Amino acid sequence: MTPRAKQQVRSWIRQEQRHRSTDLGKELLEHEIRRYQVEPKTYLKADSLRRAANSFSIKGADDLLAAVGFGRVSARQVASVLLPENVVVDHDKREKSRLRRLVQRVSGKTPRGIQVKGQDDVLIRYAKCCNPIPGDPIVGFITRGRGVTVHSQTCSSVRGLMADRERLVEVTWGKVEKDELHVVNLAVEALDRPGVLANLSSAIASQKANITRIEAESMNDKAGIRLSVQVHDLEHLNEVLKKARSVKGILSVIRITPQTSRQEVLNDSSGD
Predict the structure, then answer these.
(1) N or C: which end of the chain has fewer CB atoms below 10 A?
(2) Are residues 161 and 200 in the same domain?
(3) Where do the H-state alpha helices sit in 71-171?
(4) Nearest Cα residue to 179 out of 242, 115, 112
């Protein structure tokens, strides 16, 4: 194939991609506009599209549609420019009302210590991926049919949830009963020496924290210990961690969650 023929093929492919992106962009915009309960044809006229294109510093209507198809501009961004302000505002109000009704339909008893901003009698569950305890920075996420799930703000799952911001709700720790206990898991690295495990257990017990589960294994003169400990809140946990780390022969003590990988534990230990 000659260089000229190759250039013609590349040109044809680019043109085909543009046509497909333009068609896809139009479909995405039509779908997005229907979400506002209005007729897309009313707002997808050439003049309206050209004005919208100008607001994004794009040359023309077809270029705007292609940009949506390519993913360079979102359909929601373009719709918010094309549609009258009152249509957008009314839609946002309906969406907020819908989410509020969703929360109310799955209403139940809120666990002590959790408050959901703007909502009463909301079913609350703690995320098992991070097991937040009172004092942890937290965020709520509306889970369809299951109320509000409370995550720690440092939970890796939250990064994925942030894309759907309409389902995020503000939650805070309210009054926490001092007799309420929460289980946290700890990973301990220690020297494999007689009495280390007994001294660690004694140190934790001295902080009025109860050990509910313990596993230990040794390798190369070191011991890896996993503990499940009951604490009242983050302040109590920090006291337990401080006391445990002061035990002779203990190399590191960190809080872990079901998400914590073995590599994260090793990395944290190597930094001590």
Answers:
(1) N
(2) no
(3) 75-82, 85-105, 156-161
(4) 112
Other Cβ atoms less than 10 A from the Cβ of 231: the count is 25
Residues 75 and 99 in one domain: no
Q: Find the distance separating the first CA and the last CA of the chain, reported in whole Å.
A: 63
Measure Cα distances from 65 to 10, 32, 74, 135 in Å.
22, 13, 10, 48
Calculate ∠ Cα 186-187-191, nearest 5°.
130
Question: Amino acid identity, residue 181?
Answer: L
| Interaxial angle between packed helices 46-55 and 61-70, expressed in degrees from 0 to 180 and rounded to the nearest 10 | 60
What's 221's domain CATH number?
3.30.70.260
Q: Quick one: CA dihedral 232, 236, 238, 239, positive or negative? A: negative
Out of 50, 83, 116, a domain closes at 83
* Global confidence as pTM: 0.53
Q: Give the residue numbers spanning the domain of 98.
A: 88-173
Q: d(Cα 81, Cα 87) in Å, to the nearest integer?
A: 11
Q: Model confidence over 177-215: pLDDT tens digits?
A: 667 888 999 999 999 888 888 899 989 999 999 898 888
**Where a domain ends, among 139, 173, 207?**
173
Split into its structural domains, the chain has a count of 3
At 46, list the tokens: 């050439």
Asked if 117 and 68 sit in the same domain, the reply is no
Are 239 and 253 in contact by the 8 Å Cβ rule? The answer is: no
